[in-house]
What we know:
Helix 1 runs antiparallel to helix 2. The radius of gyration is 16 Å and the shape is elongated. The chain has two helices and no strands. It has helices at 2-16, 41-66. It is mainly α. The protein has one domain.
Amino acid sequence: MIGIADLLVAVGLGAMSSPGPARLIFAEPSSAIMTTLPWLLIPGFLVPLLITVHIAVFIRLMKWNAD
Length: 67
């Protein structure tokens, strides 16, 4: 659970510091670099993949504990 929360907080903070209407954090440097490749792969591919892996592990643990 802490791992998923950490991933969601990281994406939320990145969104709040990126240029645009949702920007709430005005510190420099901004997270504008995350909109270019290869950095785009982190929030666009790795974060959803890691959340899926966390959920799969939780499901496996629940099935293992049920036996």
